[in-house]
UniProtKB/TrEMBL annotation:
It comes from viral metagenome. GO terms for molecular function: DNA-binding transcription factor activity, RNA polymerase II-specific; RNA polymerase II cis-regulatory region sequence-specific DNA binding. GO terms for cellular component: nucleus. PANTHER family: MYB PROTEIN-RELATED. Residues 13-57, 73-118 form the Myb-like domain. This is Uncharacterized protein. Residues 93-122 form the HTH myb-type domain.
Length: 169
């Protein structure tokens, strides 16, 4: 597994210091100077900084405190259960509504968690994965056959499935 140091900035988690910097640059009246923001946060794109501020920090929510950023908090089983029960298989769920039952989670976090980790797999989808594992097919061939799921979710499910098969042997 690659260390966090070797990952591109866009791929590694946000640090508390970066979050404080984004908050300081973006949370004031008037337009944000994105050139300055990108210089202060080297390796982070304008899109990444904007997304971090608007989707994660959401200053319109009174509950956000820059000193209590939850960028590294793991999802609890209780949060997963609440998200699953609220979404009930609805890919087009109202993520803002769902996030309200999960304090401290933004709509974008809930959507990502559901689409990448929680969305249930049908028996047919599991059979497709099993067949492709037996045939040694690449992920590239498998992805178009499972349009309901993102590549990260397919990769994770494929890994889980191949691990469970090797344990069964």
């Amino acid at each position: 597994m690659a260390s966090l140091r070797n990952l591109k900035c866009e791929d590694r988690p946000w640090t508390r210091e970066e979050d404080r910097t984004v908050w300081g640059l973006c949370n004031w009246p008037g337009p944000t100077d994105w050139d300055i923001a990108m210089r202060v946060l080297p390796g982070r794109s304008e899109e990444a900084i904007t997304s971090r501020f608007l989707d994660y920090m959401q200053p319109q929510r009174q509950s956000f405190k820059p000193e209590k950023v939850r960028s590294f908090s793991k999802w609890s089983k209780e949060e997963d259960v609440k998200a699953l029960m609220t979404c009930e298989g609805d890919v087009d769920a109202n993520w803002d509504v769902v996030s309200r039952i999960l304090p401290g989670r933004t709509p974008n976090q809930v959507k990502s968690r559901y689409l990448n980790h929680l969305r249930p797999w049908t028996a047919q989808e599991k059979d497709i994965i099993a067949l492709h594992i037996k045939q040694g097919s690449s992920l590239k061939i498998l992805v178009p056959l499972l349009p309901r799921h993102k590549i990260t979710a397919i990769s994770a499910e494929r890994k889980r499935h191949s691990t469970s098969q090797s344990c069964d042997d």
